[in-house]
Design a protein that fits this description.
This protein is mostly helical. The chain has a single domain, classed as Multiheme cytochrome fold, CATH 1.10.3820. 54% of the residues lie in helices and 0% in strands. It contains ten helices and no strands.
Length: 182
């Protein structure tokens, strides 16, 4: 085989790999946005309530979680993220088109830790990993977060959403959702 044939084949393989990676990243990103999730009518109440929440931009700091998957998928590794996204998306699609039972969101409302991941919280709230060094944190709040880490290191099943949820912290992630699901 001539050298230029080999270089052409290698070039084509590299271009195909780069383009497929790029389009895969675009697809994962687009299918994680609230506008995509809201296309399923069962998700509409969640997206609407999110838009008026603290994490949806209703805060005085000007931040907003960009994607539903920022909170609702694990961020421990790319593999765990993509695996959970594939399983969750497939399950939701099958439920939406009638191949599987629909999730009872009202019943699951208080089961936060099943579908909100600490790794998602910690993706944005990095400083909370070391509460003693977190800038501007109230001493009482610092103590509570140090307790959380102490329990977490001891292997206790504890989650950020045990305290941080719409029931304990109004307007947190999905204000008015429970009423909207009635």
């Amino acid at each position: 085989m001539k050298k230029w044939h080999l270089y052409t084949i290698i070039g084509i393989v590299i271009v195909v790999f780069v383009m497929s990676s790029y389009f895969s990243i675009l697809t994962v990103n687009k299918t994680s946005e609230p506008n995509f999730c809201m296309k399923c009518h069962t998700m509409k109440p969640m997206v609407e309530s999110f838009s008026i929440s603290i994490h949806g931009g209703n805060n005085n700091l000007g931040f907003r979680a960009a994607h539903c998957t920022d909170c609702h998928l694990p961020h421990n590794s790319t593999f765990s993220f993509l695996l959970a996204k594939g399983i969750s998306g497939t399950r939701d699609l099958f439920a939406e088109i009638g191949f599987a039972g629909k999730l009872n969101f009202k019943k699951a409302y208080f089961e936060y830790d099943r579908y909100v991941y600490d790794s998602g919280c910690l993706k944005c709230h990095k400083d909370i990993r070391n509460p003693s060094k977190a800038y501007g944190m109230d001493p009482d709040i610092r103590q509570i977060h140090e307790y959380y880490w102490q329990k977490k290191r001891a292997g206790v099943n504890i989650s950020c959403v045990d305290c941080h949820n719409d029931y304990n912290t109004p307007n947190f992630a999905h204000p008015g959702l429970l009423q909207a699901l009635k």
